[in-house]
Specification:
The strands form two sheets. Strands 1-2-3-10-5-8 form a six-stranded antiparallel β-sheet. A five-stranded antiparallel β-sheet has the order 7-6-9-4-11, with no helix packed on it. The chain is built from three helices and eleven strands; from the N terminus they run H-H-H-E-E-E-E-E-E-E-E-E-E-E. It is globular, with a radius of gyration of 17 Å. Helix 2 crosses helix 3. The chain has 171 residues and is an alpha+beta fold.
Length: 171
C-alpha cells in the first residue's frame, strides 16, 4: 500500500480556510451594505441571554465600563461572562481606534472574532466588516490593521490568550 505522508496545513492556511468557510455560509446583506450584528447574533456568539447581549451592544459608545489596553492608543476592552456553551473560553468586547495596528502576536489557543463596528485587515490580506467572523487557531501568528475610516469594535472568544512577538516573522 502506498500512502502519502500526512501534512498539516500551516496556521495561516488554516485561518484562511476558516475565513473562507465563514464567508461561504453567511448570507449576503440584502441591501449590499454592511450589516452590524443583532443582539440575537451576539447572544448566540457568547451563549448569553439576548437582553444581556443588547445591553453590551448599547455600551459600545459609553466611556464607563471599559478598561484601557496597555500601550499607546491600544484601545479598550470590556469582559463578558460567557454562557455554559462557551465554557473554557474568555469573552470580551474590544474597541480600537481608526488606523490602529496590533503588533504581530501568536495565539496560544483558538480565537473567534465577530466584527460589531468598523473593520480590520489581517496581515494575510483578508478584510473584515460588521457581521464578519474571523477565526485563528492555536499557534497562528499575525498582525491586525484597523481600517482608517473609523473605530473597530469586536466581540472575542479566546482560549488561552495571545503572546506578542518582538520581531515580525520571516517568510
Amino acid at each position: 500500500t502506498l500512502a502519502l505522508p500526512e501534512r498539516r496545513p500551516s496556521p495561516g492556511a488554516r485561518g484562511r480556510l476558516w475565513q473562507a468557510l465563514a464567508r461561504a455560509t453567511q448570507a449576503p446583506p440584502l441591501s449590499g451594505e454592511e450589516q452590524a450584528p443583532s443582539a440575537g447574533r451576539l447572544a448566540a456568539f457568547f451563549d448569553i441571554p439576548e437582553p444581556q447581549a443588547a445591553h453590551f451592544l448599547g455600551t459600545l459608545d459609553d466611556a464607563a465600563g471599559w478598561l484601557s489596553i496597555p500601550g499607546p492608543g491600544a484601545g479598550q476592552l470590556q469582559a463578558v461572562s460567557v454562557g455554559p456553551g462557551r465554557a473554557g473560553q474568555m469573552g470580551m468586547l474590544v474597541r480600537f481606534p481608526a488606523g490602529f495596528r496590533m503588533p504581530r502576536h501568536q495565539h496560544r489557543g483558538s480565537e473567534r472574532a465577530l466584527v460589531l463596528r468598523g473593520g480590520f485587515r489581517s496581515s494575510e490580506g483578508a478584510t473584515y466588516h460588521p457581521g464578519d467572523e474571523a477565526w485563528s487557531e492555536a499557534d497562528d501568528s499575525h498582525e491586525l490593521y484597523v481600517l482608517p475610516d473609523g473605530e473597530c469594535a469586536l466581540a472575542l472568544l479566546l482560549r488561552e490568550g495571545i503572546e506578542f512577538r518582538q520581531e515580525p516573522e520571516e517568510g
